[in-house]
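Me: Here is a favour to ask of a fellow structure person. Could you put it straight underneath, so I can go through it closely?

Assistant:
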Amino acid sequence: MSSTDHITRQPVPTTDNGHADAAAAVPEAGKTITNHRVDTTFDKFHDRYSTRSLGLKTSPVRALFAVANRPEVVSLAGGMPNIADLPLDIVSESLTELVDTRGAVVMQYGSGQGEPEIREHICEVMAVEGLVADPDHVTVTCGSQQGLDLVTRIFCDPGDVIMAESPAYVGALNTFASYQTEVIHVDMDDSGLVPESLREKVTVARQDGRSVKFLYTVPNHSNPSGISQSTERRREILAVANELDLLVVEDNPYGLLNLDGDPLPTLKSMDPDNVVYLGSFSKTFAPGFRVGWVLSPPFVRDKLVLAQESATLCPPVFSQFAVSSYLAHWDWRAQVDSFINMYRTRRDTMLASLAETMPEGTTWSRPSGGFFVWLTMPGTIDSAAMLPRAVTKLVAYTPGTAFYADGRGQRNIRLSFCYPTPERIKIGVERLAGVVREELDIAETFELTDGRRHSRDLGPGPNLA
C-alpha cells in the first residue's frame, strides 16, 4: 500500500468502562461507512497540509547530491559555482573589520527593502551590463530564488498561467508549482525564445479564459539549455510582450559570465517599464551569502517589500554588508574575469570531450557562457531511467525531465561544467558516453530503434548540433 492509499473504517464505539463494544461496532445493513481515512504515512499531519504544499517537490538536483558528492563519482549534475579562486584572505579580513568597526550595525535588524549601501553597489554591478538603475527601485532578497518566489507570490493566484522557456530552470518550475500556477512552455531555437510561439500560446490561453500573468526567461546562458537570446531576438520578444500587454520576468544570474565576449544587453535595459529583473551574487561572488535582488517599478517594489517583511522581516543584514565590503575593497571585476577564464577552460574541455566520445546522433548546445550544456541523446534512451546505471558507472547528470512542467525532456540531459576540474570533466564525459553506448546497444538488441517513445515524451527541447 502506498503512502497515498487509504481505507475508511467505522470508529469503534466503547462501553461505559471504556472497552470496545463489539456489537455496536457492526454497521447496520444498508448503511455506508463514511468515516476518517487511515493512511499508511507516518506523518500525523498528513491531512492538515494545504493544497499548496502539494507543489513542493524534491529537486532532482538536490536528490543527487548524496550520491554525486562521493569522491569516486564525477558529478556533472549540480550547478555549484567554483569559488576556489576567491581571495579568501581578503574576505576574511573584510569580515573581521566589519565586526570590529560596525558590529552593532551589521548584526542588527535592517530594512525590509535592503540596506542602502548594498543597493547602491548593486546598481554599479548592473551598470556593467548597460542597465542604469535607481537604488530606490532595488529590493534585496535572500538570493534571486527568493526574489522569484516573492514575484510569483505578489502576481499569481492559483490557476494562473506563467509562460516559460522550453526547457526552463527547475527551481523556477518548483516555485511556480508551489503557488499552484500552470506553466506553459514557449518554444526555443538556437537564438532563444521563438516570438511566434509566445504570441500563439498566450493568445490561445487567453481565448480559453486563462489569466496569463508573466513570461519567465533566463535570456543569458540559460539554465539548463545554455542558450543565449540574440539581441535581435530580445527586441522581438519584448515587442510581442508589449503587444500582448504581458509582463516579463528576467532572471539573470549568469549575465556577467559571458565566456566569448562582452555581456549582452539585459531585457530590462531595453524595456525598463515592462520587465522585472532578478539578479544575484551567487555566481559572481559566493552563493553562501545568499544575496540577490529584484529591480522593479516603484509600485511593484512596494508590494515586494511588504511580501519580504512578512516572510523574513528583512534580508540578512550581515550578508549585505559583507558583499558591500567585498565590492568596495576588492577589484571584483578582475575577479569576475578570473572566473570567466576558469569556466571557459572547463566549457571548452566539455565540448571537446563530447565531440570526441559521444556516439553518432547525439547533439548538444554550445553555450557562450554560464554553466551548462544541454544534450539530446539519440534513439529512445530515457535519461531518467538511465541515471541509476550511470551512477553505477561513477558519473552523474541531471535528467531533462526536471526542466519541463509537461513531461518532456526524456531524451535530454543537463551537463554542468562549472565545478569539476577539466581532468574530471574528461573522465565524466567518457564514462557518460560509455553508458549511452550501452543503452543504444540494449535498444538495438530489443529492436527499440524505430523511434518509439514513452507516452510522456512529447519531444525534446533545443536539439542543437
Notes: The radius of gyration is 25 Å. Residues 1-35, 450-465 have pLDDT under 50 and may be disordered. The chain is about 40% helix and 15% strand. The CA atoms of residues 94 and 325 lie 6 Å apart.
